[in-house]
Amino acid sequence: MRRAILRGGGVLAMAIGLMALADSRSHAQGILDFVSFDGIDYLRWAEEPGRPLEWGDLGVEFATVGCSIGEDRRGCPFGVDAAAAFMPAGTRMYAVRGHATEFRLAAVWRDRIFLYQAWRNPRAKVGGKLYDIAGKVRAIDVQRGEPTPAAPGTPLRIASARDVETLVDMIVHSPVRRPRRMLSASPATGSPSGSRTTPRSAAPISSRRAS
After folding, report:
1. N or C: which end of the chain has fewer CB atoms below 10 A?
2. Which domain holds residue 117?
């Protein structure tokens, strides 16, 4: 397995789970921290390199969580609109400035801000419609395998503007397919097993949906 970290302006991390989320070899346990709105499933990653979101990063209010699996497992199954794994019902979701709401949302709970990024969008046919990273990545760290606290490993930095542009272009223009697996996490990292990309962009996200 290979893990890539795409770095942009150094102020915001974007974790993107690629096709390995559908890998049948994944040894996954436990449900991931997700929210679902308008048919799009968003994930909050256990590791978020870069600075945390700040209040100035938030845009308009986008929606509110309608139900939470953590509060009502039977009445809030995965796939229901406005459902969340752990964020309680009533949690407000915001757009993140500089990003489309189809890509990123921010939850505000107990005066803390939590970043959620698109994992699955049935309307996205190519990577650029799922991952809003074009023109926002400046370097890429590549690392084989999934890092753990005991063995964090040392990533290889790709800093050539041409190489970065080529790799991002591949992601943006490549066709995407809908993951087949249920949202489940690796017991070691709390993230989906398999390959990942974690880009950093120069701007964050937030928004609210009209009721």
Report:
1. C
2. 2-206
Distances (CA, A) of 177 to 18, 29, 199: 10, 23, 20
Q: Is residue 211 part of a domain?
A: no
pTM: 0.67
Query: CA-CA distance, 63 to 77, in Å (whole number)?
Result: 19
Q: Provide the number of structural domains found in the chain.
A: 1
How does pLDDT run across 102-149, given as a tens digit for each residue? 999 999 999 999 999 998 898 888 988 888 888 888 888 787 777 777
DSSP-derived 3-state class of residue 43: strand
Tens-digit pLDDT profile for residues 186-208: 433 444 444 444 444 443 332 23
